[in-house]
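dumping this here so i dont lose it
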């Protein structure tokens, strides 16, 4: 994915460098890959709620979704059904239990369940989701650098601002925090009950921090 983005910038847009690369979640994983694949292409890198390498828990979470989707595909279940099951699983992982129970009282469960209609099927057919899960399970920026974050950190050239959510259950923040400490770079740990969606719940705080990092 990052190689194709690089080709878009250089071969099609004629750019030799850019000011900053920013991305969240799976996009954050790509920002980490940019840091080591093309470390001098951007001056600044901002991954948020991403990770440089998947924890075992992350891999298990994605493996569950992958195997469900592959089973669905095998038996020809419609994409709308596949997406409904996928969205149910990711809704739980992307939010904390406290957030869900705060938003929906026990008597409002039917209202919550009605949110999941598989409407993302047109944009994300099961085959797309399967490719996404496979890419995330195997994501590891250390693989060309001895398999350690310590050696990988030596490859990074630009300024880095890493943002994580302390309550994130979908993409655990621990590997990002470790990498930030190795880089001795800026780190923001969001403290709220929004899990993977933490940046959105503190949008003004996060936006101001990003703007300050980009401007300096």
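and the seq i came up w/
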């Amino acid at each position: 994915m990052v190689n194709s983005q690089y080709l878009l910038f250089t071969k099609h847009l004629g750019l030799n460098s850019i000011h900053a690369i920013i991305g969240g979640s799976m996009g954050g994983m790509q920002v980490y890959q940019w840091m080591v694949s093309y470390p001098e292409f951007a001056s600044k890198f901002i991954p948020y709620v991403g990770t440089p390498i998947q924890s075992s828990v992350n891999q298990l979470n994605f493996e569950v979704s992958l195997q469900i989707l592959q089973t669905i595909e095998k038996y020809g279940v419609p994409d709308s059904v596949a997406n409904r099951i996928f969205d149910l699983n990711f809704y739980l992982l992307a939010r904390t239990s406290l957030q869900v129970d705060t938003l929906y009282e026990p008597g409002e469960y039917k209202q919550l369940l009605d949110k999941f209609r598989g409407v993302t099927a047109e944009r994300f057919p099961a085959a797309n989701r399967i490719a996404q899960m496979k890419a995330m399970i195997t994501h590891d920026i250390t693989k060309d650098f001895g398999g350690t974050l310590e050696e990988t950190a030596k490859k990074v050239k630009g300024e880095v601002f890493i943002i994580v959510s302390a309550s994130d259950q979908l993409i655990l923040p621990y590997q990002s925090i470790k990498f930030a400490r190795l880089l001795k770079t800026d780190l923001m740990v969001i403290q709220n009950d929004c899990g993977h969606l933490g940046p959105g719940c503190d949008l003004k705080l996060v936006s101001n921090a990003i703007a300050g990092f980009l401007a300096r």
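The first strand starts at residue 18 and ends at 24.
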